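Researcher: Go.
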Amino acid sequence: MRKLQTLGKKAFTLTELIIVIAVLIILSAITIPTVSGVVSRANESADIANAKSIEGAIKYAIASKEASSDTADTNVEAALRLSGMSESVLTARRNGYSFYYKNTNGEVEVAGANPGTGYVLLSGDSPMKYVPGAGWRIEEVSGGGGGSGSGEGGGESGGEINPAYSVSISGQESSQINQSITLTATGTSSQASDILTYVWTILSGEANSEDTDNNDSYTITTGSTAGSVVVEVTLYANGVSTGETDTHTIAVENAPSSYSVSIIAGPTTATTGEAVSFTASGTSSNASDILSYQWSFTGSAIKNGTDTGNTFNLTMGKAPGPVTVTVVLMVNGSLTDYTDTCSVTVSVPVQSISFSPAGDVLIDKDSGPDNIAIKTVRFGIAPNISEGNSSGSSNSSYKELYYWFYFNYDGNEYYLKCSCINYVETNQKKSVLMTVDIINKTLELKLTGKKESGNESIEKNANAKVTIEIYKYFDGTFSDLVTSSSFNIVITE
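Model: Structure:
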């Protein structure tokens, strides 16, 4: 049998294989760290470049005013979209690192933890918002948390709560219809250089305002209907709305009814027994009210008729003195506190005195006792005159003869004086004689010439005067003169 010989390459021995593996391990140990370092440095460079790009995008949005707080979704992502970058750029390449935005200077940092106070984490749910005149602001920042990923140094992130603006309204919360109300707004800004103005709006209710100055005060006038008025103020900074608002509600009520009453017609003086009338006028601000009146009085008088209408009638009593009339306004049958009074001074009627025949009495100078002139004295209210007495007095210039009579009227005492005064010259003796009789509540005066001894006649122009006077007699003395009247006696040829 022939022996076959195997042709081809000779196989690796175990020793050779071990040597090859060892060489590969050595090469790998040299190559892999080098590649890993290159990748890490590449990621770091990318993160730094992205941070600069993000910072540039934010500053561009601020500078170009493309970002506005009037848009609800204005945030860092919107700024990035303005630059054409996607939200994926907000994710750092390196594990455990994140991007942070510093509000004070606008810089963007990439770090494994929050770099410090003032920095806020940038992510797809960024709490940043741009406010005109104030820059980017943190609306809210949760207290803890680290960067994206979970590498070492994942410390605290977030920032302080720092609202840029606030506004509030102060003022009365209730009013009445047709009243003026002034409200005041108080606005704040974290930027001292901001110029704040206010735009007011009446959201609902019946009211109007002429204020257009956009200042911190606002005056409205409520309407004529009760209800509520809602006013809103919007805070503006540097002429641009901040989006900050406040509302204020005012409860408007009907004004309470107002009333008045007065005695518009009525006497202030009257005489005993006289009938008088009073008239009252009342007002109410509520047209539906039913007004009536309650009358009363004090003093000597008698009521005539009803005491609930707007007129009131009295008859004065016999006693003089004050009578006070009071009216009270009644609304819908109920008494109010609105009153008025009228005071009447009541006195005994003033007596009128008349003579019949009227005019002066003419007496011939040669007349004697048989030549009598008669005058009748009548009174407006005839008194019951009682018997009186007579007396006389004289001096160098005149002689007076007078009579006193007493009468009572309405419980008051009066005295009537009837006097005849003869005007004479020195050493002349001449006079007029007068006698008085009471006839049916009147006085009858009988006048005649009186010749003195040694004179055969009364000289011409030796005139006389007769006067009738009525006095009130009170507490034993004469008081006021009530009335008087007189006539002359003329001596003729």
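Model: The longest helix spans residues 14-64.
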